Amino acid sequence: MFGFNFDRKTLYIIIGILVVMSLSSYGTDGIFNLILSIPAVLLAITVHEFGHAFAAYKLGDDTPLRQGRLTLNPMDHVDPLGIAMLLFAHIGWGKPVQVNPRNYNRNITVEKADAIVSFAGPLMNFITATIFALIYCALIKFAGITFLASNIGYIVIAIVASIVTLNIGLGVFNMIPLPPLDGSKIFLPVLPRNAKYWFIQHEHTFYIVFLIIWITGVAGSIISPIISQITQWILGFAMTIFGL
Q1: Is the CB of residue 41 less than 8 Å from the CB of residue 163?
Q2: How many domains does one find in the chain?
Q3: What does the pLDDT look like over 111-162, one tens digit per residue?
Q4: Assigned domain for 2 exists
Q5: Is the previous residue joined to 180 through a cis bond, with omega within 30 degrees of 0?
């Protein structure tokens, strides 16, 4: 989408090289933590893409249903390349959910329907993060010191915590209002007409802007405080529920 001429095979080779280089610098603890993050990555991508598919279906488009995307089976949503990128480059994606705007219900505009479908992905990430924050606090309160101090307890807590943080991170990241992220469609309906047309006309330029802010780390510096704040809110909510 950025004009690269690499085919899929070439991209896999590049990612393979990045993986090997990353693993060589991780050390034992880094590799162990990487392995623990895999369930979180699979779940975050799965619920995100399911959210898109479910919203589109509820708005009248049966394309996701016919393509088998109304499921929480990770194998129907994950893209191996996207998972590798999320693990090693901290930016990834799932298999895009295809929709047909002509099938949407006519009681709202296509633009608003697209915004709802786009927002459903990050929303599912925030909901998932909240659910697992509650599970995290429940474990802290009820699992007992013996379990929490055990190797199994450490692994369970680490996986649950990773699910919370990664879902929040993926949700916030996708709210950035730049193509190809969901935020570019979420905020489009609220723009003035002239600004909306200008944004659409310069969409390819914004692709390049997105690539630049990601490579330079600007995106991370912008959203990191937001991720931290939302994490505090969600964990604070969960701790209040369990009286921690």
Answers
A1: no
A2: 1
A3: 899 999 999 999 999 999 999 999 999 999 998 888 888 989 999 999 999 9
A4: no
A5: yes
Burial of 206 (0-12, 13-18, 19+ CB in 10 A): middle
Neighbours of 144 (CB within 10 A): 11
- Residue 26 has phi, psi (to 5 degrees) of -80, -40
Quick check: is 30 in a domain?
yes
Range(s) of the domain holding residue 71 = 8-241
CB atoms within 10 A of CB 120: 24
Find out whether 188 and 115 touch, Cβ atoms under 8 Å.
yes
Candidate list 49, 61, 114, 182, residue with the active-site label: 49
Tell me the pLDDT band of 4, cut-offs 50, 70 and 90.
very low
Q: 3-state SS string over 19-72?
A: HHHHHHHHHHHHHHHHHHHHHHHHHHHHHHHHHHHHHHHHCCCCHHHHCCCCCC
- Domain contains 1: no
Q: What's the CA gap between 193 and 212, in Å, rounded? A: 27
Quickly tell me which residue has 């893209």 as its tokens.
Answer: 79
- Residue 49 catalytic? yes
Q: Which two tokens stand for residue 85?
A: 């990128």
| Residue 3 is assigned to a structural domain of this protein | no
Say if residues 148 and 157 touch (Cβ distance below 8 Å).
yes
pTM of the predicted model, to two decimals? Answer: 0.85
Burial class (CB in 10 A: 0-12, 13-18, 19+), 153: middle
